[in-house]
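Data card: per-record layout.
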Amino acid sequence: MKLIFMTCAQSSAVDSQTGRLSLFHLLEQVQATSFPTAMSLTLVGMFAREAGEPDDQSVRLKVELGETAIFDSTVNFSFRGKQRSRVLMAMNGLAIPSAGKLSFSFLSGEGAALGAPWEVFVEQAPEPQESARTT
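The structure for this 135-residue chain is written out next.
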């Protein structure tokens, strides 16, 4: 099985008639006003299966902040007789303890990376500046 692409967005929608996926506000860099903070996002992966591979598959989704794993879970899905399968993971309230680089990775059952990770840089938002007083 091969990961064709992965991306991360603030939200998504799937058209009920065509099955087309729309992603809104791709996440590459975000600012948080304080830490810890929680993020809601949709992670999308498109997988292609190799000849002879079964319809039903599982991968691991691992999310790391720097070198620390903050989420690690098995994701089960089916190709349903097709060559490709799209996996959407809605993550509501992902706890982010501090600023840093978030890496989202799909891994095989043996722990090998399936494609390149998606990275999101989480920064501390600047303090709001006081507006100048006029007299």
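Known properties of this structure: The chain has one domain: 2-124. The mean pLDDT is 94.

See the next section for split statistics.
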